[in-house]
């Protein structure tokens, strides 16, 4: 192998070192080289460790990025849900506003209806009070009338009397005139039929029977009549005014006969009334052959 003329040989280099370069420089140079080697090794180790740390950091960054992506996805979902919920809440609030408005309208309508009903009730109560007052006034007047009638009846009770009839049966209360007869009618104990009977061959209807006047004696206040009842003819002869003239009809009680009482005996006319029991006042039909007198006024039943 050939050696370049510019490069010294080992022997020359050794001679050069031995003759011109101090030994400590070589040592220093070795130390520097060793230090550089150490530094290189340390730098490599550090670089390797940093590379590993960087790789770990990158892995962690990837994990964090994945977690961040998941978080962003969740946030997006939540935001979407929140927007949907907001829309629903907005719709609900609108419906609530409408419901509130409707409720307010209903409340106002109810108040108006209540006020109208209250007015009507007040008016009705006022009218009822007025009617009740009028009725109370009428009742008070009627009560006074009843009390007056009761007083009159008590006053006339002494005037009304009983007596034995022509059949020896105790009569009811006897009326001696029309006023007494009205008092008897108000008492309502019996049925009363007033009559004014003319002398005639034809019978006249008086209540449930028929009667005909045969003769009269005004001076003695006596009269004779014929009564037709239950197809039977009964003559009551020479009876006196104010005397209870009694007879029975079919179905009447033995203790409650029919009674004729005459107020006044005139020439060819008598005036009085027929009294019948309540339970049998209209039981007897008239005789078929009898006919009412043409001149006689109508009877006046209770």
Description:
This protein is of the alpha+beta class and 302 residues long. It has 2 domains: 1-157; 178-301, Tick-borne Encephalitis virus Glycoprotein, domain 1 (Sandwich), CATH 2.60.98. The chain has 3 helices and 9 strands. Strand 4 and strand 5 (232-240) form a beta hairpin. Helix 2 (23-157) runs antiparallel to helix 3. The termini are far apart.
Quick take:
With 302 residues, this protein is an alpha+beta fold. The chain is built from 3 helices and 9 strands; from the N terminus they run H-H-H-E-E-E-E-E-E-E-E-E.
- Uncertain stretches of 5 or more adjacent residues: 281-298
Mean pLDDT: 78
* Span between termini: 185 Å
Q: Given the C-alpha coordinates, what overall shape results?
A: rod-shaped
Give the domain tally.
2
Estimated structural class = alpha+beta
Strand order of the largest sheet: 6-7-8-1-9
Helix content: 40-55%
Along the chain, the helix and strand elements come as HHHEEEEEEEEE
Number of strands: 9
